[in-house]
Design a protein that fits this description.
Blueprint lengths: L1 H4 L4 E5 L2 H14 L13 E3 L4 H10 L7 H4 L7 E6 L5 H12 L6 E7 L4 H4 L1 H4 L6 E4 L4 H27 L3
Parallel strand pairs: 1-2, 1-3, 3-4, 4-5
Length: 171
């Protein structure tokens, strides 16, 4: 809700199965999750579905620059949520690095990720204050991480809707 309340946008990114989960997450935020009545839309964009920009970036700047290049366009009140099972994809690592380079005026960073050795483990500042909030799923099994990620996506969306409902309910 931080981005929403500050006029920002929630951007989500993942590769392969995590891309599908990022799209699902964005849809739940924009439309609704379980709340039956209409609620305010949360501005959320799945970067994995930005085909023209993504392919232009990969062609002109290289495959590791997407979504880092999009981070350059983000504002201080935006939130980038990275979903990754392995923490090893070069483009995800590059997005983390670019976000950190833009601190304190760039977007905030959050993540849902699995327990794999990789660049996240080599970058303690990423697992520390730079990555808030973060949910580390303690598994190296891709299917287990994906299942747990879906659970957390639904729990986060439920919490967002509860908070929105509480704000709309008169005292």
């Amino acid at each position: 809700l931080w981005a929403h309340r500050n006029g920002g946008v929630v951007y989500l990114f993942g590769n392969v199965g995590s891309a599908a989960q990022a799209a699902h997450f964005a849809a739940e935020l924009v439309v609704r999750f379980e709340q039956k009545d209409n609620r305010p839309a949360i501005a959320a964009i799945d970067l994995s579905s930005q085909n023209a920009s993504m392919t232009a970036c990969m062609n002109d700047l290289g495959p590791t620059e997407w979504p880092a290049r999009f981070v350059d366009a983000m504002h201080q009140h935006d939130l980038l949520i990275l979903l990754t099972t392995s923490c090893r994809s070069p483009n995800v690592v590059r997005a983390v690095e670019r976000t950190m380079e833009r601190r304190p005026h760039g977007p905030r960073l959050a993540g849902l990720y699995g327990q794999w050795p990789g660049r996240f483990a080599e970058m303690p500042e990423v697992l520390g204050p730079a990555l808030h909030p973060r949910i580390n799923i303690p598994s190296a099994e891709v299917s287990a991480v994906q299942e747990a990620t879906l659970h957390w996506i639904h729990r986060i969306c439920a919490a967002v809707e509860l908070a929105l409902r509480a704000k709309e309910t008169p005292p």
